[in-house]
């Protein structure tokens, strides 16, 4: 039940973020599928990419992780029908706003 709740919150966060960030469109079904795919990529692929790009991340004082997040959002856009990102900068701002929205939902969902 807790996993379903987190999945619904993630889909809602994607929908809200797509509404706020220009250049990103999402359908209802696309938001649910994107939540699953983005969660899986963040769980399995992102740690490997972060380790491989650690020197560049260190040189940029961690800001390169935002680029990694944007590239993962673009990958989700290519894979998930109903979730469209216009370009890199839209994906970049989408990743930033999504992190903030998820943070707010995280504060709200915990005691």
Account of the 3D structure:
The chain is mostly helical. It has one domain (2-109). The chain contains six helices and two strands. The longest helix is centred in the last third of the chain and has 22 residues, at 88-109. The mean pLDDT is 94.
Low-confidence stretches: none
Quote the average pLDDT: 94
Tally of alpha and pi helices: 6
- What's the arrangement of strands in the largest beta sheet? 1-2
Ends apart, CA distance between termini: 17 Å
Name the overall outline. Answer: globular
Beta-strand residue fraction: 5-15%
Number of strands: 2
SS-based class? mainly alpha
Order of helices and strands: HEHHHHEH
Strand count, sense and barrel status of the largest sheet are: 2 strands, antiparallel
Query: What portion of residues is helical?
Result: over 70%
Rg from C-alpha positions? 14 Å
- Number of structural units classed as domains: 1
Short description:
This protein is mainly alpha-helical. It has helices at 2-20, 28-44, 46-52, 54-59, 64-79, 88-109, and strands at residues 24-26, 83-85.
Topology (elements, then pairings):
Blueprint: H1 2-20, E1 24-26, H2 28-44, H3 46-52, H4 54-59, H5 64-79, E2 83-85, H6 88-109
Antiparallel strand pairs: 1-2
Helix pairs in contact: 1-2, 1-6, 2-5, 5-6
